[in-house]
Design brief:
Layout lengths: L9 E5 L4 H12 L3 E6 L1 H5 L14 E5 L5 H11 L3 E4 L13 H22 L4 E5 L24 H20 L3 E6 L2 E2 L8 H13 L6 E3 L5 E3 L1 E2 H13 L6 E3 L4 E3 H10 L9 E3 L17 H7 L7 H19 L2
Parallel strand pairs: 1-2, 1-4, 2-3, 4-5, 5-6, 6-11, 7-10, 8-13
Antiparallel strand pairs: 9-12
C-alpha cells in the first residue's frame, strides 16, 4: 500500500530565542512541525543571545523582522502562511519599573495587534497564541485568580497585556479569527535569564558552594509567587491551539511559595543553610508588590487536560543541578 506523505504543520514563534521560545521549539519539533522563529537585529549580531537555540539551529529556520512594524508583519505572514503562530516576544523586567512607560506598553501591545491584523488581511487560517501575565490581575483582593477574575493592572506591562487581550477577544468576535491568550503565572527553568530572582538564587547557591561567591543580597524574603516549570507551561500553549474553539486560559501551579521556601530548597540542594549567606537590602524591595497572585487552573485542567508535571521542589533542584554543572564546566 502506498504511503501518503502528510504535510508538516508550520509554526512561527516570535521570541524563539527566549526561555519559553526554546522549549516550545523543541516541543514542536518533537511533534514533527516545521518550526520558524523570529529574532531581532541585535540578536542576529550577537550570537551569544541565541545560546538556548544552539542545539536546534539545524532544525529551525530563523527570520529577522520587527513585530512592531505592521508592514513587515503583514508581508511576512502573507508569504509564510503559518498554521500556528506563538507570540512570545515581549519586554518584561524582573522589577516593576516606570521609567519608560510608553515604550514598555508599545512593545508588549503593538506586536499582538500587528499579528491579528496580518492574519485578517492575508485571510489565512493561522491560529494565534499570545502570552499573557499574572500582572494583568494586578492589585486584586481575589485569590486565586481565574479567567473571570477582575483585572486591575498597575504596571505598564500588565496594562499592555490586558489591552492585547481585549484586542484578541475583539478580533475573535468581529472576524472569527482563532486567537487566544495564556495568562501565564511565573515559570522558571535552567534557561531563565539571571536577572530573574529564582535563577539569581540557584546560581548564587552553586557559586557559594564552589567558593566563587560569599553572600547574596535580596529584598523581601516573605514575598510569595506561583512558580511552575517553563517546560510544562509551553505544552499548555500548544494544547490551546489544538482546541475546537479559541479560549483564554490561566496557567500556573496553583500553589504559592515564598522566597524563603526557594532559598531553603536551593541552598539545601548543595548542603548549605541559606541563613548563613543571605542578607536583606532595602534597595531590592519593589515599589509595588503583589502577594496573592495565584493561578486557579481548573479550566485548563478540565478542558485541556493540562496541569504541571514538575513540582516546585523538583523545579528548584533541577535549576541548582544545572547551575552546578554549568559552573563546574567553566572551571575545568
Amino acid at each position: 500500500m502506498q504511503m501518503i506523505n502528510q504535510k508538516k504543520k508550520l509554526a512561527l514563534i516570535t521570541g524563539i530565542a527566549g526561555q519559553d521560545g526554546s522549549y516550545l521549539a523543541e516541543f514542536l519539533l518533537g511533534k514533527n512541525y516545521e518550526v520558524h522563529g523570529v529574532i531581532t537585529n541585535y540578536q542576529n549580531q550577537d550570537e551569544t543571545r541565541l545560546w538556548r537555540l544552539k542545539d536546534l539551529s539545524a532544525d529551525i529556520k530563523l527570520h529577522m523582522f520587527d513585530v512592531l512594524n505592521p508592514q513587515q508583519v503583514e508581508s511576512f505572514i502573507a508569504k509564510l502562511r503559518p498554521s500556528e503562530i506563538y507570540h512570545l516576544a515581549s519586554n518584561v523586567e524582573p522589577r516593576v519599573i516606570f521609567e519608560d512607560e510608553i515604550n514598555t506598553f508599545n512593545i508588549n501591545f503593538t506586536g499582538t495587534v500587528n499579528l491579528l491584523r496580518a492574519i485578517h488581511k492575508a485571510q489565512t487560517n493561522s491560529r494565534l497564541y499570545c502570552a499573557g501575565s499574572s500582572l494583568m490581575f494586578g492589585k486584586t483582593l481575589e485569590s486565586p485568580q481565574n479567567e473571570d477574575s477582575r483585572m486591575s493592572p498597575t504596571t505598564p506591562y500588565g496594562i499592555a497585556k490586558v489591552a492585547a487581550l481585549n484586542f484578541i477577544q475583539m478580533y475573535r468576535e468581529a472576524y472569527g479569527i482563532f486567537a487566544c491568550m495564556g495568562i501565564l503565572f511565573n515559570h522558571e527553568s535552567p534557561r531563565r535569564d539571571e536577572r530573574f530572582l529564582p535563577r539569581k538564587i540557584t546560581k548564587a547557591a552553586a557559586n557559594i558552594k564552589l567558593g566563587n561567591q560569599k553572600t547574596l543580597e535580596l529584598g523581601d524574603l516573605d514575598m510569595q509567587r506561583d512558580w511552575s516549570f517553563a517546560g510544562d507551561v509551553i505544552e499548555s500553549m500548544w494544547l490551546m491551539l489544538q482546541a475546537e474553539q479559541p479560549r483564554d486560559y490561566v496557567i500556573g501551579s496553583g500553589i504559592l511559595h515564598s522566597i524563603k521556601d526557594l532559598l531553603s530548597i536551593a541552598f539545601g540542594a548543595v548542603g548549605l543553610d541559606w541563613r548563613n549567606y543571605v542578607t536583606v537590602n532595602d534597595k531590592f524591595f519593589r515599589k509595588i508588590e503583589y502577594g496573592n497572585l495565584c493561578a486557579d487552573i481548573k479550566r485548563a485542567n478540565t478542558e485541556l487536560n493540562w496541569r504541571p508535571k514538575l513540582n516546585f521542589e523538583q523545579l528548584i533542584m533541577k535549576m541548582v543541578e544545572a547551575d552546578m554543572k554549568l559552573l563546574e564546566n567553566k572551571h575545568d
